[in-house]
Every structure is written in structure tokens, then in C-alpha cells.
């Protein structure tokens, strides 16, 4: 027997409509997945652009105190240390009369400063080393002998004793042959037998020669209108600070390049005592030999002479960025 309820029609269950909060199914063909962000690999690929190369200062460093004034300004943040070497395309703009560079050896990673210029052997000038630009590279035997036959043997022996035996600061693949901006001297190659000498230095007074180019007057084949380079280093709180200065004799003699004490942007900068003491040639002796004390410098407290006598006698007179440091 069947109940009357069995006669009712049973309809199949209809699916419930999707809830409002249920996510709609993704249609992959219309919604492609977002690609992951690009990764920066140290081995290559995307590289962060470096800021343009900018020298520390522009002017002329006439004395040790001038150089230490620039170092002090860099320590105070008034000027900036350079953090890297210039690229090949930046080198020509850097190698101009008046460029002054200061760099920290550890922070920059620069152990040996190179600029792709043919330089003479170094000569000691007070607490600095100076170089003068040559027409061509010197042969090893020429580094100890002057080319000018008018140079006497006594002068040759005196200069030879100050020759820096470090490697040349250029490479055969990248040589800067240019002179200072506006130099009308063509960049031509000269035969080795032809002796070409820069006459400008020969026309200077003996005092100007000693002050600006030392003995580098006519002893080598100097480039007409070329550059001088002056280097000095100091160790401060365990860090070596190197100073490189480029200038032309013409710009210095004419007064075109100013000293730090003449730069209004450096007004009030006085090197701290640690930067002024311990030099082989005392700052007082250096200033008295070269020129009268500058008023802004004369007002500063001089360093006592006893501080200089405390320097060991074996300490080198001057320091090149390629060799042992001057300050310890």
C-alpha cells in the first residue's frame, strides 16, 4: 500500500545562486598574471647611474697651509672629497689648470692616482712633490739625465737625488696629449732628436721659478702650455688624505688662479692643529721663503718650532700618492 503522499512530484534541487561575497572565477585568458618585479643583480644588468665627476676645488695651492686649508674644508663638509676616479670621457674636463682634488684612500679605494699624462720625474718642493708635463714619454735612462746639454753635472746630480722611482703614471693605451684650454700649440709628435723646450719658465725670475716649478725649467722636453702637478698627503685619525693640484705657469704668474685665502667661499676656514704640525719643512719657514705672510694666515696661532723638531729625521721630505705617507 502506498500513501497518498507518494503521488506528489519531487523536483530536483536547483543550485543556489552565488553569494555576494564569493569571488568570481578568474578567466585566465583575459587576466594574465602580473609579472614579478625585476631583481637587481650585482653581477650585471641594471646599474645605478653615478653622479658626474666633480673636482674638490678650483684654484692654486701655493703652500702646505693652502693644501691643508682645502683638506680642512673637506673635513668640515664645506668641500667634497672625490669618491672615484674620472671616467675616460670625464678626464679631459678634469685635467685643466686650477683643478684640485682631495680623496680619502680607504673610502675611495684609490691607492695610486693615475691621470694618463706624460710627467717628468718628481721634484721635492717644500713638503710637496711637483711634476711637469712632457711632450712625450721618457725612456728609463732619460729619467735620471737632463736632456738640455747646458745643464751642468752638479745640477744633474742634485736633481737625480730627488727623482721619484715610482712607475710612470700613464699607460700606453690612454695618453692625454691636450694642453690647457685655449692652448694654441698643436698636438704634434716630435722626433726624439728634436729638443723642444718650453720657453715660458725660462723667462720667469729665479724667485718665480723656485716658487712655481722648482728645478723643472729646462732639464726635460716640456710641453709648451702644459700643466704642472703638485701632490701632498696627510694622515689624520688613521685616514690618508691625498691632495692633487693641477696648474699652468701662465695662469699662476698672471694671477688667474686664486689661493684658498682669497676664496670668499672658504672664509673662516682655519686648518686644525693636527694638520699643521709635524711637517719636514715648517710652515713658518715655507711662508718666509716664498712670500710674506698672508694677513688672514698671520692672524692664526703659529705652530711652535718644537713640534717640528719632534719629527724623526728619517721621515721623507715629501710624499707622493704612489708611495709611503708623509704623516704618521
From TrEMBL:
**What organism is this sequence from?**
Delitschia confertaspora ATCC 74209
- A Pfam family that the UniProt record links to this protein: Gti1_Pac2
> What are the start and end residues of every segment in region (Disordered)?
1-49, 146-165, 302-328
> InterPro entries, from UniProt?
Gti1/Pac2
Q: Which GO terms describe its molecular function?
A: DNA binding
| Origin organism lineage | Eukaryota, Fungi, Dikarya, Ascomycota, Pezizomycotina
Family the UniProt entry places it in: Belongs to the MIT1/WOR1 family.
Domain of life per record: Eukaryota
- Recorded protein name is Gti1/Pac2 family protein
